[in-house]
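For the sake of clarity, the format in which proteins appear in this thesis is described at this point. The fold follows as a row of integers, each naming the local backbone shape at the matching residue. One such record is shown here in full, so that the layout can be seen directly:
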Amino acid sequence: MKRIVFATMALALVAFGAQAQDQGGNEDAKWRVGGGAAFSDFEDDDGIIDDNQVGFALFGQYQFNKWVGIEGGYLNTGDFEGRIGTGSSQEKLDLSFRGFHIAGVVYAPLNQDDIDVYAKVGFFDFDTDLSSNGAIDSSGHQDGAMAGAGAVVNIADQWGIRAEFDWFDTENSDFWTAILGVEYQF
């Protein structure tokens, strides 16, 4: 049920933004879409899994004006690896996160056309899979608060290189992601 509410809120906000653009003729309003490589780091409080992996991230954003936007995104971390046990009874553990986030985005008031600096705060909803020696032991999900900051270097009229750092408030662990990718603005 949470996911349905989550998706409905995101679609309603984007539809509201698109309608406001049509009525107001705001020349600063625009869409941003893109993706990139996600360099993630995860460490649980017990120290069983302490690993970094490369996955991917996708996003879509509606920027209402020069300062404010709303973003939805998808993240797939790949498998974080760990080991539990000793000697011949040692088991290999794999933990993966994949899912969505929605966030409000605020842009810094820079007077430069070639760089956009931003911060964002929102919520995430991720599916998790924990496997032991290749067999999935448990599946579940985590949700919570997230925050991030980044910059876009505009390399052409509609293209930019995006670098971003995101932190996720997960239970009993430290989890963050650095994303390097491209975006298209229209």
